[in-house]
Amino acid sequence: MEKQLHLNLLASRPPVAAGFQSGSKMKMGPGRKKDFSPLPWSHYFETMEDVEVENENGKDIFRIYCSGSDGPVLLLLHGGGHSALSWAVFTAVICSRINCRVVAMDLRAHGDTKVKNPDDLSADTMAKDIGKVVEVLYGDSPPPIMIIGHSMGGAIAVHTATANHVPSLLGLCVIDVVEGTAMDALNSMQNFLRSRPKTFKSLENAIEWSVKSGQIRNIESARVSMGGQVKKCEESTSSPGVSKSIGEGIIEEEEDEEGEEESNKKRMKEDDQEIKKESIFTWRVELSKTEKYWDGWFRGLSALFLTCSVPKLLLLAGVDRLDKDLTIGQMQGKFQMQVLPQCGHAVHEDAPEKVADALATFMVRHKFTEFKEGFLC
Question: What band does 167 get if pLDDT is binned at 50, 70 and 90?
Fold first, then answer.
């Protein structure tokens, strides 16, 4: 989340275009228009389900997307404002590389997850959510699980691991989130959020903006994941702005003869239909309202990451992301690090194949799993 502050710089670089098949390049000939139409989750995940979790206030419902039937579980946690769909293309690629199962989860107040207290986005609460979902899915005997988190999700992954909410934890992978850079970026985050469009005319318009702004540099990723970031506004004649403009006309017309009343009703109906025809989309998550939790997500993150006893992988979009603690830890061999250049902040969306290759190699090296038969690494 925090690196999106740099998007104004990233936007000057040409976005990476991918075809429908993961990693293939979508060649744009002269005069050929790019396709920004949305893609369904079912092209990438095998199943979608809602997991009910009991808490003191009732039931919370977490949306998850799954693929694979054997091997260790890759539990995927998205960044702030994103959803599980940001892992769609990556999931299709990693499942073709190694024997594994994927569980991509819409975190609290994100995507299609519904919780009783969506305003509580503290690291502690969100980490507990992860543990509860794992418990509901697997009971007292969970399979080996590797948690992979991007940005905010990377921070929550670290908090989950250090709090031992997943006792069968196999490994930890954090993507493009480092305490030092994150804390420095927080001061300017509100300015960045204010600079984004507040609404889009359509989902296609949102997808196009995400690619052209540099937020997501892979067209295929944007086409499947932006539907998890934006939602259709509930426009109706009951909304304040609409009722005022239409209502004023009604009051004036009611003073005329009855023949005018019928004409007014007809026009009101036409206006209402016109409003509903204009499907305006807006952000699902108001990230500006989560500011009070930012410090808790990121402060002390490097030390927590280094104290995790499981094998760790840190994937970064640039070496400039590394802070002092992690630089020392990396020199001491406390974790494996790989820099994936020419990516924006959404590394796993921009370069799903590179991320999948790095993760697959890491997991096979640690004997967590094996490459699939016939796959040449």
Answer: very high
Res. 241: pLDDT tops 70: no
Active-site residue, selected from the candidate residues 67, 83, 86, 151? 151
The active-site residue out of 78, 110, 159, 345 is: 345
Which position among 129, 176, 221, 225 bears the catalytic label?
176
- Average confidence (pLDDT) over 206-210: 97
**Mean pLDDT for all residues in the chain:** 83
* 320-340 pLDDT tens trace: 667 888 889 999 999 999 999
144: which 2 tokens? 């080996």
119 as an active site residue: the answer is: no
- Tens-place pLDDT, residues 338-373: 999 889 899 999 999 999 999 999 999 999 999 998
What pLDDT does residue 20 have? 32
* DSSP collapsed to 3 states, the chain: CHHHHHHHHHCCCCCCCCCCCCCCCCCCCCCCCCCCCCCCHHHCCCEEEEEEEEECCEEEEEEEEEECCCCCEEEEECCCCCCHHHHHHHHHHHHHHECCEEEEECCCCCCCCECCCCCCCCHHHHHHHHHHHHHHHHCCCCCCEEEEEECHHHHHHHHHHHCCCCCCEEEEEEECCCHHHHHHHHHHHHHHHHHCCCEECCHHHHHHHHHHCCCCCCHHHHHHHHHHCEEECCCCCCCHHHHHHHHHHHHHHHCCCHHHHHHHHHHHHHHHHHHHHCCCEEECCCHHHHHHHHHHHHCCHHHHHHHCCCCEEEEECCHHHCCHHHHHHHHCCCCEEEECCCCCCCHHHHCHHHHHHHHHHHHHHCCCCCECCCCCC
The residue among 292 and 25 whose pLDDT is bigger is: 292
345 as an active site residue: the answer is: yes
- Residue 323 annotated among the catalytic residues of the structure: no
